[in-house]
# Entry
Amino acid sequence: MATAKKTAARKSTAASSSGSSGTRKAAPDASEMFNPLKAMADRLQDLDVAGGAGKVLENSRKDLQALMEANEKSFQGLQTLVQRQTEMIKQAIGEWQSAAKGMPGKDAKENLAKLDELGRQSFQRAVDDIKELASLAAKSQADAFEVVRQRIQANVDEVTQMLKRK
# Structure
């Protein structure tokens, strides 16, 4: 009898949860997609555990925070990189457009000479831009790695202190 009631309760709960309201869970926003560990870190932070288990959970929470911070720094660096690359492309397109506007009605040799010079300048600028973008990417990754390195060092220091006590 009790089993039948439990089964009926499960069926009614399942029916009400799958109800005909037609609501769907909203798609995750960008911050949820790039911080998948945030919910886990929040849950670990809400746990109230004493003693050794609490220390382990606290360290895990700090590790997750460091990973989230590193992820955020990496994401911000990527955004900066994309913005700068977009600016570079817009600038190059603008230069080529202005050069093309100034060519009609002039001597063909002069136009070819201008195109040749513009091509050389564009190539040199592209090389310089690649260097700048590589530098931005390296800085971004170095910043993210530094967060993780600091957390690893903190873990090593904590373990060292624990071993010294014994």
About this structure: The first helix runs from residue 2 to 17. The radius of gyration is 29 Å. Confidence is low (pLDDT under 50) at residues 12-23. The helical segments are 2-17, 30-34, 38-46, 51-101, 108-165.
